[in-house]
Amino acid sequence: GYGDSPPLETVVTAQGRVAFLDRVLQELGMRRPVLVSPSMSGRFSLPFLLEQGDRLSGFVPIAPVGTKDYTAEQYQRVQTPTLILYGDRDTGLAPQALQNLQHLPEHHEVILPGAGHACYLDKPEDFHRALLGFLRQLK
């Protein structure tokens, strides 16, 4: 809903969003998935990563919202392999997200030239190449 979805009481808090995402992963029977998180999904993925990152094989944030809600120390405790991916034309959210996400100790960065905020739509081949390269290196 691009942030315009009606609020649900179960996901108003970060803890509620963690529980929601946990339930989704359980219902889908996913074990140690790679969580790909563009933009607004950061409200769900970031608290999950910080609380239950050990349940993920990898994390791929794409200029997610909410990165400023957490401290460098919280990010530094996460050991989940992370691919920070963004377009160089995303001059709004990407720089702020990058500044915060760079505190993740197990991260790599890929900048997609000529791509905006939705870099996966602007440069799908480059996006998929970077994503598949990251997935291949995971244990």
From TrEMBL:
<protein>
    <submittedName>
        <fullName>ABHEA protein</fullName>
    </submittedName>
</protein>
<dbReference type="InterPro" id="IPR029058">
    <property type="entry name" value="AB_hydrolase_fold"/>
</dbReference>
<keyword id="KW-0963">Cytoplasm</keyword>
<dbReference type="GO" id="GO:0005737">
    <property type="term" value="C:cytoplasm"/>
</dbReference>
